[in-house]
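Thread title: Can someone regenerate the structure for this chain?

I was given the following input by a collaborator and told the matching structure tokens would be attached. They weren't. Posting the sequence so someone can regenerate them.
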Amino acid sequence: MSGILAQSKGAAGERLAADYLQRQGLKLIERNFRVRGGEIDLICRDGASTVFVEVRRRSRSDYGGAAASITAAKQARLILAARHWLLRHGECPCRFDCVLIEGPQGEKIEWLRDAFSAD
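Best answer:
Regenerated them for you:
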């Protein structure tokens, strides 16, 4: 898949995930927070908690699907970015969620709350 096509599919997946989470009652705070060494797709508020969300979209479930692509190295980059965000915005209760989108048209959306921890 070309880089531009992958980016547009990624952006579409993030829009699907943001819309889905907002329908579930979360408030979107920020998209695509980047620091050197890490990025967070979506940052939301769920009550008093800040939710750092990784969005994974796969058109096929080969090789374990979307969930299998969130490796320990990817988690470490997310945690790094979250620490930077918290330094800028203040410490607060937080968690790491993942939204997995599968199917050519994003037919299946799965929300994993507390998918991993920073410990």
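The two ends are 35 Å apart (CA to CA).
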